[in-house]
Amino acid sequence: MEGIKIPVGRSGFADIRRNGYYYVDKSRLIEELLKTDATQVTLITRPRRFGKTLGMNMLSEFFDVRKDSRAVFAQLSIAENRELCGKWMNQYPVIFLTLRGIDGLEFEGAYAKLAAVISEIYKEHFYLMKSEKLNALDQEMFYRVASKKASREEVENGLTKLSKMLAAHYGKPVILLMDEYDVPLAKASDKGYYREMLDAMKGIMQVVKDNDALKFAVITGCLRIAKESIFTGTNNFVSDTISRTRLDEFFGFTQPEVDQILQDAGLTDHGAEIREWYDGYRFGEFDIYCPWDVMNHVNRLILDPSSKPEDFWANTSDNAVIRSFLNKTDFDVQEKFEMLLAGGEIKTPIAEDITYDIMESSEENLWSLLYLTGYLTRVPVNGKEEGPKGQFLLKIPNVEVRNIFRKSVKAWFTEKSAASDRQGLFDALWNEDEEKLTELISDLLFDTISYYDYRESFYHAFLAGLFSNSGYQVESNYENGLGRSDIVIKDRKNRRAVVIEAKWTDSGEAMEKECGDALRQIEAQQYAKKVERTGYKKVGRLGIAFWKKQCLVKSGRA
Predict the structure, then answer these.
(1) Among 522, 531, 524, which residue's Cα sits nearest to residue 557?
(2) In which band, very low, low, confident or very high, does the pLDDT at 448 lie, cut at 50, 70 and 90?
(3) Residue 112 burial (CB < 10 Å; 0-12/13-18/19+)?
(4) Which one of 19, 102, 248, 514 is most buried, counting C-beta atoms within 10 A?
(5) pLDDT tens, residue by residue, 270-303
(6) What letter does residue 453 receive in the DSSP assignment?
(7) CA atoms within 13 A of residue 158's CA, in its CB half-sphere
(8) Residue 347 DSSP SS3
(9) Which neighbouring-strand residues pair with 217?
């Protein structure tokens, strides 16, 4: 297949199909959902960027009675089931909404956006204002919601009322599709108005409780918020999480699907790098790729075959959960983080029913959140998905997510260092007090998290973060003399500087020699002399050797 068009950033199913954009056939999701159409609510939870919105858009296109969707589903697998299509395709009124844009610094702003979403849904069905099935009071209420003049009670009851109006108009029950239902609560938790938003969402969710006008509902999100918290009173409720097996192949790409994409794009020689960067997720019994990453990278490769993999997923999340973990001083998670960053695995219990307001209350909840939001994935234990007593074996899924962890740890350490009292450290630095520097840097190294398995790049970044944001000029890997010195710290006010050359070794016994080699390199490459030629009166020389979490500092003073 030549000239395929990758629909990056498009979540409109009909738009993709009508324009001939590349589409990985996930239409059997419809068939699978309809096997249990008697279920009142199906909650599907997956990490962000795994195709939930596109899937929901496809469901809307299939069921909506106002549309003729035969053309957009032609040649897809669901079209082969003619009996099902005849019974269900474009046969029911649909309410389709997404809550992913509900955010605000304060509750009032976020609630206004929530009310606006409900208003837009009403305007989409404005033809009901002329329906003979609506009485005058219904029409008045309808107009108030559509024109954003409704009371809070009318807004929160808006979906329930709309479902009843639609059912009356069409003489058929309604299918409700709600995308990213938990985003308002996630944002509210971050901004400090969780309780107010939870109360509002409980009102909105009345639509799925004992509602005779509802055929069924499909709801998506990242977390399965505890039923008693938001879905109280919903009797027929089924959740499909990343630990289940029923719908797992429909969100994300399987290996055969990625192989087909690469074949169609003429990029089969890039399979290994795509697997290393974007594969590794375990949903139920399926190994899954992140579709957002795959499509972005394939699109880049089509435009420029020399393109390298990037952290596409990182740009869609604020990675706040990792920072929450790092900032929790009452959790001893340093060794577990280092094990994960080195490519290892950790064992921990997982709680899949959590609420945003308590997610930071325990170490178990935070590991659960990392798992449920896609930062960690399961490793089967002896062929089983779950170990004894609910224990899960978890790992970082791929290179992309490992990079996210490393960047988060690096930023955390730099901010932590900037906020700490480093007066003693800098006193020792300017005095070239090698014993004190060895002690202080070793202590700080012990307290930080290694994210490069103790390679030289880690130690260089560690030193750069340690001395940065201190009021002094810090040059890292700066073009200096006849080569590149590791770190140069300059105090312009007092016309003094220190040149640091750091070495990494694989044994404690070699640290003394490495310090000497570092000092000889400073002199041979004239790192310090160049600094002196720019007007600095005193330029110190320090050779630093690292081995695991041990440090040795030697001064080059004559």
Answers:
(1) 522
(2) confident
(3) middle
(4) 102
(5) 999 999 999 999 998 889 999 999 999 999 999 9
(6) S
(7) 30
(8) strand
(9) 41, 176
Q: Is 553 helix (H, G, I), strand (E, B) or coil?
A: strand
CA distances, 149 to each of 116, 127, 141, 490 (Å): 10, 19, 9, 62
Amino acid occupying residue 47 = P
Whether 251 and 73 have beta carbons less than 8 Å apart is answered as no
Question: What are 142's two structure tokens?
Answer: 């309808």
Query: What are the respective helix, strand and coil percentages of the chain, to the nearest 5?
Result: 50, 15, 35
Neighbours of 256 (CB within 10 A): 9
Q: What is the pTM of this model?
A: 0.86
Q: Phi/psi at 58 (nearest 5 deg)? A: -65, -45
pLDDT-based confidence at residue 1 (cuts at 50, 70, 90): very low
CB atoms within 10 A of CB 539: 22
Q: Reduce the DSSP state of residue 546 to 3 states and report it.
A: strand
Residue count of the chain: 558
In the numeric block, the tokens 């596109």 are attached to 54
Tokens of 330: 């009452």
Whole-angstrom Cα distance, residue 293 to residue 401?
11
Strand partners, 218: 42, 177
Alpha-carbon distance of 243 to 372, in angstroms, equals 9
Taking only the tens place, the pLDDT of each residue in 156-186 is 999 999 999 999 999 999 999 999 999 999 8
Tokens of 247: 């719908």
One-letter amino acid identity for 506? D
Contact 487, 474 (CB under 8 A): yes
Does 235 have pLDDT greater than 70?
Answer: no
Q: Which residues contact 472 (CB under 8 A, 6 or more apart)?
A: 426, 489, 490, 491
DSSP 8-class letter at 309: P
CA angle centred on 215, ends 69 and 11, rounded to 5°:
40
Q: Give the other-Cβ count within 10 Å of 194's Cβ.
A: 20
Query: How many other CB atoms are there within 10 angstroms of residue 31's CB atom?
Result: 15
Q: Which residue type occupies 263?
A: Q
Show the DSSP H helices in 41-135 as ranges. Answer: 52-63, 70-73, 82-88, 107-124
Residue type, 490: K
What confidence tens digit (pLDDT) does each residue in 48-61 have? 899 999 999 999 99
